[in-house]
Amino acid sequence: MKLGVFMVLFGGRKLEDALDYVASKGLKAVEIGTGGHPGNAHCNPAELLGNEAALKNFKNAVESRGLMISALSCHGNPLHPQKDIAKGFHDDFVKTVELAEKLEVPVVNTFSGCPGDHEDAKYPNWPVAPWPNDFQEILKWQWENKVIPYWTEWGKFAADRNVKVGLELHGGFSVHTPATLLRLREAAGEVIGANLDPSHMWWQGIDPVQAIHILGREGAIHHFHAKDTTIDPINVNKHGVTDMQDYTNMLDRAWQFRSVGYGHDNKTWADIMSALRLVGYDYVVSIEHEDGLMSVEEGFSKAVQNLQQVLIEEPLGDMWWV
């Protein structure tokens, strides 16, 4: 496996400066934002798709530093019930897939999206309880009329261009657990897989190692994010894991995102890396930084240090007893 980083945390730096910094830390891969919530500070698909020289220069900027692009990322909600909002996210996805094909980047990361509760809704509706029965009816309508049709069509669009779709399992979206990912994958095809982020598993009460086994046995892990989470044992009893407080209210929140090693120890992260290898994942571990207690540089550097201790980088060799 290769260690990489989600470049959105260096969005305030010029691309070349950010790439130099990443390479100086010994990383081998970058994941680059192309629109949606990550923004396109380092990569604007509309500009690159229409300019072959600019496209060549962009690719050379990465490769000349000994780096590869693990994924292009345009996380958004293409199923948003407000059509103009949905179109913006959808267009970002389409352009990103087209750019990934040209750059020979194998994965585009995004969210599954979350529809409203009926055709004329204004806001997304994320059902999280089976009763009252209204929620079950909403969930059925969303999946049958929005989620499956959209990803069946646009998953094929990506597959036809040799691009896989890595959906981040994130609360607030229709695909947020291993089970919901596999449900969509069964309906829309193997082009759909996970951009698996342990931090979103922990706060939902899911063991990331078991999530890796569940998805990995199906070949359904397309990309991997490295971010940690800590659960406050007191606040979680007050607010529950679906705590709706702002992320900046760190003292009172039930859980919060941390840099790798600051929510769970290196043994836990070593178990995660071993599980990835066990199920055959041999691609990129991409650091994501959303730690409100650390600066970008400190959080990134600490994550690199911790992951370099546990990452399994070498390919599998012959066993002496075989």
UniProtKB/TrEMBL annotation:
Pfam families: AP_endonuc_2. Keywords: Isomerase. SUPFAM superfamilies: Xylose isomerase-like. Transmembrane segments: none annotated. The keyword Iron-sulfur does not apply. Residues 19-305 form the Xylose isomerase-like TIM barrel domain. GO terms for molecular function: isomerase activity. The keyword Isomerase applies. It comes from the Bacteria. This is Sugar phosphate isomerase/epimerase. It comes from Paenibacillus tundrae. The lineage of its organism: Bacteria, Bacillati, Bacillota, Bacilli, Bacillales.
